[in-house]
Amino acid sequence: MIIEARYNGPPGSGNGGWSAGVFATAVAGAAPADARSAVGAAGAVEVTLRRPPPLAVPLRAVPSADQPGRHEIHDPDGTLVAQVAPVAEFTPTVPAVDLATARAASADYPGFTGHPFPGCYVCGPEHADGLRIFPGRLPDGRTAAPFRVPAEVRPETVWAALDCPGGWAVIAPGRPYVLGRIAVRVAALPRPGDECVVTGAATGGEGRKALVHSSLYAPDGTLLAHARATWIAVVT
Length: 236
Known about the structure:
Layout: H1 16-30, H2 36-39, E1 44-49, E2 60-63, E3 71-74, E4 80-87, H3 99-107, E5 136-137, E6 143-148, H4 155-167, E7 177-186, E8 195-206, E9 209-217, E10 223-233
Antiparallel strand pairs: 1-4, 1-7, 2-3, 3-4, 5-6, 6-8, 7-10, 8-9, 9-10
Helix pairs in contact: 1-4
InterPro entries: HotDog_dom_sf
């Protein structure tokens, strides 16, 4: 596995959602055929990031020595980067909004005027060839944004799309957060060229940890995927 430089989040490291999707997909591909439903698109997978995912560095997945069914992602020096594990199905989703509502919310995206990582592959206004998902706040505190699906769609694309809309439910000026853990269930991949809708919501938290959910909807309102995540406030 290699997180290519274009899939960055904070400077010098991979976008958390994209990187987690790469790790989950790699583990699913390495699993025996009869076990893939537990770690592939048919099931929910949780990835815990133990350090910022390095860019342009070969990474490898190895079975956990003391936790059957789990895998660890190591860099070439053997440093633990992430842990991947199947998890029980989770049902909470963030309700959908129509495309017009998502577009209106996105027009007021706070990241246009104050973004902690403006080059982020998913939500960075300065990343010209990124996903360009710009989540704005709804009156009830949820976030929403349109998402134009790129020509090449991979599971990692969905993981990435579910990442930042949840984070922007808690990010505020002078209060940056980074992804610490994300669990995703993918029901179906979006179709290239579709304009989908992504929603996010804060659900709780304590101290530096914020708990969020996010959901991805097809143009007809069908739920394609959803996530729960833990974001960690950056100490500056």
